Amino acid sequence: MGDLPPDVDRLRTLETWLALSLKRVREEIAAAERPAQPWRALRPPVTARAAAPRRERTPD
Fold this sequence. Notes:
By secondary structure, the chain is an all-alpha fold. It is 43% helix and 0% strand.
């Protein structure tokens, strides 16, 4: 390609910049593809507790 710099130093700099840019784009794509989850969905589900045996109410 004729529009690239001729020396290795600038080509390496361009390579680094492109790799970092590609990483950022891929992160944005991954974030956009994740389903939107409300904050409650991030919490672990509440498990049903075993019911404690009921005690008779004592007279006052």
